[in-house]
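Sorry, explain these C-alpha coordinates?

***
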Amino acid sequence: MNQRQNMQKETRRLNNELKLTDKSKAFLENLRLYLFSSGKNSNEIEEIVEELEVHLSEAEKSGKPIEKIIGKSPKEYMEMVSNEMVIDYRTWVKYICLIIFGSFSFTIFPDLLKGNLSYSLLEIVGHIVISLIFIASIFTGFKYISTTKQSIKKQGLILFSIGILPIALFVGLIYLNRAVDTPIFHFGNTGSLIIGIITALFIFGMSFWAKTWTIIIILAWLTLPDYLLSLTPLKYETQLIISSLITFGGIAFYIWISNKLEKK
Protein backbone atom coordinates (compact mmCIF):
# COMPACT_ATOMS: atom_id res chain seq x y z
CA MET A 1 0.00 0.00 0.00
CA ASN A 2 2.82 2.41 0.91
CA GLN A 3 4.61 1.62 -2.34
CA ARG A 4 1.47 2.40 -4.33
CA GLN A 5 0.96 5.67 -2.47
CA ASN A 6 4.57 6.64 -3.12
CA MET A 7 4.14 5.88 -6.81
CA GLN A 8 1.01 8.03 -6.94
CA LYS A 9 2.82 10.88 -5.20
CA GLU A 10 5.68 10.60 -7.66
CA THR A 11 3.23 10.62 -10.56
CA ARG A 12 1.57 13.76 -9.20
CA ARG A 13 4.97 15.40 -8.79
CA LEU A 14 5.89 14.64 -12.39
CA ASN A 15 2.49 15.77 -13.61
CA ASN A 16 2.93 19.11 -11.86
CA GLU A 17 6.01 19.64 -14.01
CA LEU A 18 4.10 18.93 -17.22
CA LYS A 19 3.13 21.86 -19.38
CA LEU A 20 -0.18 21.60 -21.18
CA THR A 21 -2.10 23.94 -23.43
CA ASP A 22 -5.24 25.61 -22.11
CA LYS A 23 -7.29 23.34 -24.35
CA SER A 24 -5.83 20.20 -22.76
CA LYS A 25 -6.21 21.58 -19.25
CA ALA A 26 -9.85 22.44 -19.92
CA PHE A 27 -10.51 18.94 -21.26
CA LEU A 28 -8.96 17.29 -18.21
CA GLU A 29 -11.08 19.43 -15.87
CA ASN A 30 -14.19 18.61 -17.87
CA LEU A 31 -13.32 14.91 -17.80
CA ARG A 32 -12.87 15.03 -14.03
CA LEU A 33 -16.21 16.80 -13.65
CA TYR A 34 -17.98 14.36 -15.99
CA LEU A 35 -16.66 11.28 -14.19
CA PHE A 36 -17.49 12.78 -10.80
CA SER A 37 -21.09 13.48 -11.87
CA SER A 38 -21.27 9.92 -13.23
CA GLY A 39 -20.69 8.54 -9.73
CA LYS A 40 -17.18 7.19 -10.23
CA ASN A 41 -14.61 6.67 -7.48
CA SER A 42 -12.56 9.82 -6.83
CA ASN A 43 -9.23 7.97 -6.54
CA GLU A 44 -9.80 6.18 -9.84
CA ILE A 45 -10.76 9.48 -11.46
CA GLU A 46 -7.48 11.06 -10.39
CA GLU A 47 -5.47 8.08 -11.64
CA ILE A 48 -7.11 8.24 -15.08
CA VAL A 49 -6.76 12.04 -15.33
CA GLU A 50 -3.09 11.89 -14.34
CA GLU A 51 -2.36 9.13 -16.86
CA LEU A 52 -4.13 11.01 -19.63
CA GLU A 53 -2.28 14.18 -18.65
CA VAL A 54 1.02 12.44 -19.40
CA HIS A 55 -0.25 11.24 -22.80
CA LEU A 56 -1.48 14.71 -23.73
CA SER A 57 1.82 16.28 -22.70
CA GLU A 58 3.80 13.81 -24.79
CA ALA A 59 1.50 14.39 -27.77
CA GLU A 60 1.85 18.16 -27.52
CA LYS A 61 5.63 17.89 -27.32
CA SER A 62 5.51 15.93 -30.57
CA GLY A 63 3.35 18.60 -32.19
CA LYS A 64 0.23 16.43 -32.27
CA PRO A 65 -3.21 17.94 -31.63
CA ILE A 66 -5.33 16.83 -28.68
CA GLU A 67 -7.70 15.07 -31.11
CA LYS A 68 -5.01 12.44 -31.76
CA ILE A 69 -5.51 11.21 -28.20
CA ILE A 70 -9.19 11.79 -27.45
CA GLY A 71 -10.67 11.76 -30.97
CA LYS A 72 -12.84 14.41 -32.57
CA SER A 73 -15.62 14.18 -29.98
CA PRO A 74 -14.59 14.89 -26.37
CA LYS A 75 -18.08 13.86 -25.21
CA GLU A 76 -17.75 10.40 -26.79
CA TYR A 77 -14.33 9.96 -25.20
CA MET A 78 -15.70 10.89 -21.78
CA GLU A 79 -18.58 8.44 -22.21
CA MET A 80 -16.16 5.70 -23.27
CA VAL A 81 -13.96 6.23 -20.20
CA SER A 82 -17.02 6.40 -17.95
CA ASN A 83 -18.43 3.15 -19.33
CA GLU A 84 -15.16 1.37 -18.54
CA MET A 85 -15.35 2.42 -14.88
CA VAL A 86 -17.51 0.99 -12.10
CA ILE A 87 -19.95 3.26 -10.25
CA ASP A 88 -18.92 3.80 -6.63
CA TYR A 89 -22.32 3.01 -5.11
CA ARG A 90 -21.12 2.85 -1.50
CA THR A 91 -19.61 6.34 -1.54
CA TRP A 92 -22.53 7.92 -3.36
CA VAL A 93 -25.15 6.32 -1.13
CA LYS A 94 -23.23 7.86 1.78
CA TYR A 95 -23.20 11.28 0.08
CA ILE A 96 -26.91 11.06 -0.73
CA CYS A 97 -27.74 10.24 2.90
CA LEU A 98 -25.59 13.16 4.07
CA ILE A 99 -27.35 15.57 1.71
CA ILE A 100 -30.81 14.37 2.76
CA PHE A 101 -30.00 14.62 6.47
CA GLY A 102 -28.29 17.96 5.83
CA SER A 103 -31.49 19.36 4.32
CA PHE A 104 -33.38 18.32 7.45
CA SER A 105 -30.74 19.99 9.64
CA PHE A 106 -31.48 23.43 8.25
CA THR A 107 -35.13 22.92 9.24
CA ILE A 108 -34.64 21.24 12.60
CA PHE A 109 -32.65 23.98 14.37
CA PRO A 110 -35.07 26.86 13.64
CA ASP A 111 -37.98 24.62 14.64
CA LEU A 112 -36.27 23.60 17.88
CA LEU A 113 -36.00 27.24 18.93
CA LYS A 114 -39.77 27.53 18.52
CA GLY A 115 -40.53 24.48 20.68
CA ASN A 116 -40.90 20.71 20.31
CA LEU A 117 -40.52 19.22 16.87
CA SER A 118 -43.50 18.03 14.84
CA TYR A 119 -43.56 17.23 11.13
CA SER A 120 -46.21 15.98 8.78
CA LEU A 121 -45.67 12.93 6.61
CA LEU A 122 -45.78 15.21 3.57
CA GLU A 123 -42.93 17.35 4.98
CA ILE A 124 -40.71 14.32 5.65
CA VAL A 125 -41.32 12.71 2.26
CA GLY A 126 -41.04 16.13 0.57
CA HIS A 127 -37.58 16.76 2.06
CA ILE A 128 -36.35 13.40 0.78
CA VAL A 129 -37.82 13.88 -2.70
CA ILE A 130 -36.48 17.45 -3.03
CA SER A 131 -33.02 16.32 -1.93
CA LEU A 132 -33.04 13.56 -4.57
CA ILE A 133 -34.19 16.04 -7.24
CA PHE A 134 -31.41 18.43 -6.19
CA ILE A 135 -28.77 15.66 -6.46
CA ALA A 136 -30.10 14.61 -9.88
CA SER A 137 -30.04 18.23 -11.09
CA ILE A 138 -26.42 18.60 -9.94
CA PHE A 139 -25.32 15.51 -11.84
CA THR A 140 -27.27 16.52 -14.95
CA GLY A 141 -26.01 20.10 -14.86
CA PHE A 142 -22.37 19.11 -14.32
CA LYS A 143 -22.53 16.61 -17.16
CA TYR A 144 -24.03 19.21 -19.48
CA ILE A 145 -21.40 21.81 -18.57
CA SER A 146 -18.53 19.35 -18.98
CA THR A 147 -19.58 18.13 -22.44
CA THR A 148 -20.66 21.38 -24.11
CA LYS A 149 -18.88 24.65 -24.74
CA GLN A 150 -20.57 27.31 -22.64
CA SER A 151 -19.69 30.88 -21.80
CA ILE A 152 -18.90 31.74 -18.18
CA LYS A 153 -22.21 33.61 -17.94
CA LYS A 154 -24.21 30.64 -19.20
CA GLN A 155 -22.41 28.26 -16.83
CA GLY A 156 -23.15 30.65 -13.98
CA LEU A 157 -26.81 30.76 -15.00
CA ILE A 158 -26.98 26.95 -15.02
CA LEU A 159 -25.37 26.69 -11.58
CA PHE A 160 -27.62 29.46 -10.24
CA SER A 161 -30.68 27.59 -11.54
CA ILE A 162 -29.50 24.41 -9.83
CA GLY A 163 -28.99 26.32 -6.58
CA ILE A 164 -32.36 28.09 -6.68
CA LEU A 165 -34.32 24.92 -7.61
CA PRO A 166 -34.46 23.36 -4.10
CA ILE A 167 -35.37 26.73 -2.56
CA ALA A 168 -38.32 27.05 -4.93
CA LEU A 169 -39.36 23.45 -4.25
CA PHE A 170 -39.19 23.93 -0.47
CA VAL A 171 -41.34 27.06 -0.71
CA GLY A 172 -43.83 25.05 -2.77
CA LEU A 173 -43.71 22.30 -0.15
CA ILE A 174 -44.63 24.79 2.59
CA TYR A 175 -47.77 25.89 0.74
CA LEU A 176 -48.64 22.33 -0.27
CA ASN A 177 -48.33 21.20 3.36
CA ARG A 178 -50.86 23.86 4.38
CA ALA A 179 -53.33 22.73 1.71
CA VAL A 180 -53.00 18.96 2.13
CA ASP A 181 -53.63 17.15 5.43
CA THR A 182 -51.33 14.22 6.20
CA PRO A 183 -50.49 12.44 9.48
CA ILE A 184 -48.34 14.55 11.85
CA PHE A 185 -45.53 13.10 13.97
CA HIS A 186 -45.02 14.82 17.36
CA PHE A 187 -41.63 14.07 18.93
CA GLY A 188 -42.17 15.59 22.39
CA ASN A 189 -39.50 16.97 24.74
CA THR A 190 -37.25 13.91 24.86
CA GLY A 191 -37.53 13.12 21.16
CA SER A 192 -36.88 16.72 20.17
CA LEU A 193 -33.84 16.90 22.46
CA ILE A 194 -32.37 13.67 21.04
CA ILE A 195 -32.93 14.82 17.46
CA GLY A 196 -31.36 18.20 18.27
CA ILE A 197 -28.24 16.59 19.76
CA ILE A 198 -27.87 14.19 16.83
CA THR A 199 -28.29 17.06 14.37
CA ALA A 200 -25.72 19.20 16.20
CA LEU A 201 -23.22 16.33 16.18
CA PHE A 202 -23.89 15.82 12.49
CA ILE A 203 -23.29 19.50 11.67
CA PHE A 204 -20.05 19.64 13.68
CA GLY A 205 -18.93 16.33 12.18
CA MET A 206 -19.60 17.55 8.65
CA SER A 207 -17.74 20.80 9.35
CA PHE A 208 -14.76 18.91 10.79
CA TRP A 209 -14.73 16.49 7.83
CA ALA A 210 -14.95 19.33 5.29
CA LYS A 211 -12.46 21.42 7.31
CA THR A 212 -14.65 24.51 7.12
CA TRP A 213 -17.00 26.47 9.39
CA THR A 214 -19.18 27.50 6.43
CA ILE A 215 -22.10 25.18 7.28
CA ILE A 216 -22.22 26.32 10.92
CA ILE A 217 -21.95 30.02 10.01
CA ILE A 218 -24.68 29.86 7.37
CA LEU A 219 -26.91 27.87 9.71
CA ALA A 220 -26.39 30.52 12.40
CA TRP A 221 -27.35 33.32 9.99
CA LEU A 222 -30.47 31.37 8.99
CA THR A 223 -31.52 30.62 12.56
CA LEU A 224 -30.45 33.27 15.06
CA PRO A 225 -31.87 36.49 13.52
CA ASP A 226 -35.38 35.05 13.38
CA TYR A 227 -35.16 33.72 16.94
CA LEU A 228 -33.69 36.91 18.47
CA LEU A 229 -36.22 39.13 16.71
CA SER A 230 -39.05 36.95 18.01
CA LEU A 231 -38.06 38.08 21.51
CA THR A 232 -38.68 41.73 20.60
CA PRO A 233 -42.07 43.54 20.62
CA LEU A 234 -41.84 44.20 16.86
CA LYS A 235 -44.75 43.17 14.64
CA TYR A 236 -44.43 39.79 12.92
CA GLU A 237 -44.27 41.35 9.44
CA THR A 238 -41.50 43.70 10.55
CA GLN A 239 -39.61 40.83 12.15
CA LEU A 240 -39.87 38.83 8.93
CA ILE A 241 -38.49 41.67 6.78
CA ILE A 242 -35.62 42.52 9.15
CA SER A 243 -34.76 38.85 9.65
CA SER A 244 -34.57 38.27 5.89
CA LEU A 245 -32.35 41.32 5.39
CA ILE A 246 -29.99 40.28 8.20
CA THR A 247 -29.84 36.66 7.04
CA PHE A 248 -29.14 37.27 3.35
CA GLY A 249 -26.91 40.26 4.11
CA GLY A 250 -24.91 38.24 6.63
CA ILE A 251 -24.47 35.29 4.28
CA ALA A 252 -23.45 37.61 1.41
CA PHE A 253 -20.95 39.39 3.70
CA TYR A 254 -19.48 36.05 4.82
CA ILE A 255 -19.08 34.86 1.22
CA TRP A 256 -17.45 38.19 0.27
CA ILE A 257 -15.00 37.98 3.20
CA SER A 258 -14.20 34.35 2.38
CA ASN A 259 -13.41 35.22 -1.24
CA LYS A 260 -11.17 38.09 -0.12
CA LEU A 261 -9.26 35.83 2.25
CA GLU A 262 -8.93 33.13 -0.41
CA LYS A 263 -7.41 35.59 -2.88
CA LYS A 264 -4.88 36.70 -0.26
Remarks:
- The mean pLDDT is 81.
- The beta strands are 118-120, 184-186.
- The two ends are 37 Å apart (CA to CA).
